[in-house]
Amino acid sequence: MASDVAATQQTSEEPQVALLNRPEVRSMLFQGLLTLAIIYLIYSGITNMFDALDRAGIASGFAFLNSSAGFAISQSLIEYSQSTSTYFDVYVVGVLNTLIVAAIGIVLATILGFVIGVARLSDNWIIGKLSKIYVEIFRNIPLLLHIFIWYFGVLRLLPHPRDSADFGFMGLLNNRGYFAPKPIWGDGSFMIFIAFLIGIVAAFMIGSWAKKRQMATGQQFPTFWAGLGAIIGLPLLVFLVLGAPLTWDIPVAGGFRPSGGMTMIPEFIALLLALTTYTAAFIAEIVRAGILAVNKGQTEAAHALGLRQNKTLNLVIIPQAMRIIIPPLTSQYLNLTKNSSLAVAIAYPDLTSVFAGTALNQQGQAVEFISITMLTYLTISLVTSMFMNWYNARMALVER
Amino acid sequence: MKKTLLTTVMGAVAALGVSAGASSAATLDDVKDKGFIQCGVSQGLPGFSNQDSDGNWSGLDVDLCKGVAAAVFGDATAVKFTPLSAKERFTALQSGEIDILSRNTTWTASRDTQLGLNFAGVNYYDGQGFMVRSELGVNSALELSGASICTNTGTTTELNVADYFAANNMQYELVAFEKADEVVAAYDAGRCDVYTTDASGLYAQRLKLTDPAAHTVLPEIISKEPLGPVVRQGDDQWFNIVRWTHIATLNAEEFGITSANVGEMMGSDNPGIKRLLGGEFGEAMGIPNDWAAQIIKSVGNYAEMFDRNVGPDTPLGIARGVNALWTDGGLQYGPPVR
Question: Angle, nearest 10°, between helix axes A125-139 and A87-120?
Answer without folding.
Answer: 150
